[in-house]
Amino acid sequence: MIRLQNLSMHYTMETTRIDILRAVDLDIAAGQRIAIAGPSGSGKTSLLLLLAGLERPASGRVLFDGVALDALDADALADLRRDRMGIVFQSFHLVPSLTALDNAALPLEIAGRRDARERARAMLDTVGLGARLHHHPAELSGGEQQRVAIARALVHRPKLLLADEPTGNLDDRTGAAVAELLLDLHRETDTTLVLVTHDMALARRCDRVLRLGDGHLHDDTGAVTRAHAA
Ligand SMILES: Nc1ncnc2c1ncn2[C@@H]1O[C@H](COP(=O)(O)OP(=O)(O)OP(=O)(O)O)[C@@H](O)[C@H]1O
């Protein structure tokens, strides 16, 4: 479903070059849960940005259901993200002026779906926020804001959910509850999950744990790993 082919990426700052990926190949099967771990600065966020088509590789390609992201222009990429991807960030990234309901409805509103608010309401119910529909982000706790962000990321039933340290800004207990919710929702939906996390307990609950370091992705020896075809 997702295939990284000979994917290389680096940042160049003046005279310094930071290699993020060096000729990486990876297949992620539909429905799989992949955790990406690795030291700070190893490039985990950059890898998610490549998967979302928000960064371009130096060489190689990302294939999403057989479609090469590099072959798409900015509009086509935006359409693909809107229709088939959901993204959850460490710092929630909700729109401050919108209520929980309007934030969660946003992907469907942008897609012109008439049932946007109805479906967002149902999704917020699912994440346990049925009683917070009209709260703005500033009126919600961190865990509640992240649950709105998860509802927004899943409301349009994306094929791919990208989550970048979704529990990183939450205390241990709230983080554990949010992680549980994310894994539960993954089970209920048909989504492929790529999860960046420092939390190895959470990572090990995924089908495969990959460690990014020095531009390479390694299978984590302590994890359950399987070879998958795309
Ligand atoms: N736009 C950019 N321009 C130049 N360098 C960048 C850019 N974005 C990230 N970097 C550098 O690339 C490296 C990888 O960054 P990235 O955020 O992908 O790492 P990470 O593994 O997600 O880190 P963390 O775990 O600390 O969030 C870092 O050294 C960072 O400073």
Automatic annotation (TrEMBL):
Transmembrane segments: none annotated. InterPro entries: AAA+_ATPase, ABC_transporter-like_ATP-bd, ABC_transporter-like_CS, ABC_transpr_LolD-like, MacB-like_ATP-bd, P-loop_NTPase. CDD domains: ABC_MJ0796_LolCDE_FtsE. It holds the Pfam family ABC_tran. Residues 2-230 form the ABC transporter domain. SMART domains: AAA. GO terms for molecular function: ATP binding; ATP hydrolysis activity; transmembrane transporter activity. Keywords: Antibiotic resistance, ATP-binding, Cell membrane, Membrane, Nucleotide-binding, Transmembrane, Transmembrane helix, Transport. The keyword Transmembrane helix applies. This is ABC transporter ATP-binding protein. It comes from Pseudazoarcus pumilus.
